[in-house]
Write a structure and sequence with these properties.
The complex is a heterodimer of chains A (321) and B (283). Chain A is of the alpha+beta class. Helices cover 23% and strands 21% of the residues of chain A. In chain B, the strands form three sheets. Chain B has a seven-stranded mixed β-sheet with strand order 10-9-8-7-11-12-15, with helices on both faces. In chain B, strands 4-3-6-1-2-5 form a six-stranded antiparallel β-sheet. A two-stranded antiparallel sheet of chain B has the order 13-14. The chains are: A alpha+beta (321), B alpha/beta (283).
């Protein structure tokens, strides 16, 4: 029998072992009471009881703002990717699936240089979760889109390796592990909300009008979404006479998103909500037919006017005239 | 996409050779891209676009106004309309620019071979269609009748006027020009109709069953021209539209150019009207 069980009492030592693989980041709570992924300087700061962080782990792979190119001498050069060895501990299945989706976008043809540099140096350690009212998961899930997954079980965690790096972690932590109780049956892994019919965006569902009239275009749903990746690109002259090209998160709820010179293809909130529905649940070229909703529940939790686009996929109850 | 991954992200250098004013706000920029960029540019198909960088200002998608010359220069027709184009118009010959591409899909030239082609350009829409026109005229024997209908707001805003007139005079091209309105104090006096492009199309007799129509212009133009062309009997599969969107990355990532589930930078910018049915936000 292989040793694959970590007792809770050994968790702190296990975290120290993880530091061998890179800078350790994990869920913590800020002074203002916001859950976030941050450097774990003191293991006492770890908050494994979190439901979801406000900002998903996409921030490590797609920084909110980054310099993708710089031009000091007349020609453009790749910017510094800021890649370093990083271990992200305590990631829930939804967020792991979110990263798996971003991988499909940014590691496909002509892989994004910054994203792939950071991704290749990222070790992902997943952990099982306790769903709350905002979660969309249809059933308990254990994502395999990570290097190592810790499934809570009794007095500790079952360890499941999903990559060579995961096996390397387990062998480095061998002295902390023991033979555990028999493994629970494998759980569901993958995205959780099925792809939707694109035509639903033109349905006469009364919620479309309701959502369009209440949405305030704050864009929080997109900022907090683990699979939202729309970006804008800007360029600025530098003080030394060169130029820096910046990539930063953009937001499909903002009125500027559909602008071209002299026109706007999504001037109304209804247009923008339809765009969001289509991108999230139906997918764009080349990921058509793939839903990118991973069930984390962030959009539902942060929306100030209680919009949940998934409700549009449910046939409305017939209203008596 | 058989380009080196690196070159899709990092612009090659290109030097501005000369600029020629075409109207008060539009100029033709002739640039000489570095060897690396050129190697890719020779695969350019009319209708595709390149990403032009103006250092310190940013990057814009531009559909070249002609195929690259054998000497390795490229012509880009650009209106002074925003932040990047403003700075581009200030540049002097010799300035260094950046170039990525070509990206997207161009006009289906193989399929159009042997067929009559009707080009419909409104305003700056003449720029992408000019590369198609030049290609068709260079391979004149491979295509049927070639007709260009070009509408501009005013006579002084009509681009490539003399050049188009010369091409028509040389034969091989039927040219119809129109302006929205002609000021009374018209100097020089050009022969062109006054009216909108759809009016020009109304009186035009052509073989709708075999003709390919290529349309490029401001957004409202597409809506009426597509309907008019279909009424005239041109099948939507043979109505080719070159669309404009704010393509930031050019390689299908930034999502600004989505129309329905399609991305203008990957699936377009040249679309068949038949592919855009059911996508009201496309036109």
């Amino acid at each position: 029998m292989e040793k694959n069980f970590l007792k809770m009492t050994r968790l702190v030592q296990f975290l120290e072992t993880l530091r061998l693989f890179g800078e350790l980041h994990a869920p913590t709570i800020s002074e203002s009471g916001v859950y976030r992924f941050s450097p774990l300087d003191d293991p006492a700061e770890l908050r494994l009881d979190y439901h979801r962080t406000q900002i998903p782990p996409k921030k490590y792979l797609l920084p909110f703002r980054e310099e993708i190119l710089h031009n000091a001498t007349g020609s453009y050069r790749e910017g510094h990717s800021g890649a370093k060895d990083l271990v992200l501990f305590g990631v829930h299945s939804c967020d792991l699936e979110g990263i798996a989706y971003l991988d499909r976008v940014f590691l496909a043809d002509a892989a994004d240089p910054g994203y792939s540099a950071r991704r290749s140096r990222l070790t992902l350690v997943g952990v099982s979760c306790e769903p709350d009212d905002f979660c969309f998961c249809p059933e308990e899930r254990e994502s395999t889109a990570c290097d190592l997954f810790l499934g809570a079980s009794g007095e500790g965690f079952h360890l499941a390796c999903h990559s060579a790096r995961g096996r390397a972690v387990v062998s480095a932590a061998d002295h902390l592990l023991e033979q555990g109780p028999p493994l629970p049956p494998p759980r569901f892994s993958g995205p959780c909300f099925p792809p939707q019919d694109p035509e639903l965006r033109f349905s006469d569902h009364p919620l479309w009008q309701k959502f369009a009239s209440t949405c305030v275009s704050c864009g929080a749903c997109s900022v907090c979404c683990p699979t939202c990746y729309c970006f804008d690109v800007r360029e600025y002259p530098t003080l030394s006479g060169g130029a820096a090209r910046i990539r930063e998160w953009d937001n499909c709820l903002f009125v500027t998103h559909g602008e071209v010179a002299g026109a706007n293809f999504r001037p109304d909130r209804l247009d923008r909500l339809r765009f969001r529905f289509l991108h999230k649940y139906c997918g764009f070229t080349p990921l058509q037919g793939i839903s990118s909703c991973v069930g984390c529940g962030r959009c539902k939790e942060v929306c100030p006017v209680d919009i949940d686009l998934r409700e549009l996929t449910v046939t409305p109850k017939r209203v008596q005239p | 996409m058989n380009q080196q991954p690196h070159s899709q992200h990092v612009p090659f250098a290109a030097h501005l050779i000369e600029r020629r004013d075409l109207s008060e706000d539009t100029a033709l920029f002739r640039i000489a891209p570095d060897e690396g960029a050129l190697a890719q540019l020779f695969s350019f198909v009319p209708g595709q676009f390149v990403q032009l960088s103006v250092p310190g200002a940013g990057e814009i998608p531009i559909s070249p106004a002609d195929l690259p010359t054998p000497e390795g220069t490229l012509e880009l027709c650009v209106r002074r309309v925003g932040h990047v184009t403003e700075l581009l118009h200030e540049l002097q010959p010799g300035a260094t620019l950046g170039l990525r591409g070509p990206f997207g899909s161009g006009f289906p030239l193989k399929e159009m071979a042997g067929r009559p082609v009707l080009l419909l350009a409104g305003g700056l829409g003449i720029a992408p269609l000019r590369s198609l026109l030049m290609h068709l005229l260079r391979q004149r024997d491979s295509y049927g009748d070639i007709t260009l209908m070009y509408g501009a707001k005013q006579p002084r805003l009509m681009l490539f006027r003399e050049e188009l007139a010369a091409l028509a005079a040389a034969g091989g091209l039927r040219l119809y020009l129109t302006v929205d309105f002609a000021p009374e104090t018209l100097d020089g006096g050009y022969s062109c109709a006054v009216g909108l492009l759809p009016d020009l199309l109304k009186g035009f007799r052509f073989d709708a069953a075999t003709t390919y129509a290529a349309v490029c212009g401001p957004p409202p133009l597409y809506r009426c021209l597509v309907a008019d062309l279909e009424r005239a009997g041109v099948h939507a599969e043979r109505i080719l539209l070159s669309l404009e969107r704010r393509m930031r990355c050019g390689i299908g990532r930034c999502c600004h150019c989505a129309l329905g589930q399609k991305l203008c930078c990957l699936d377009g910018p040249v679309f068949r009207a038949s592919d855009l049915k059911g996508i009201p936000e496309a036109l």
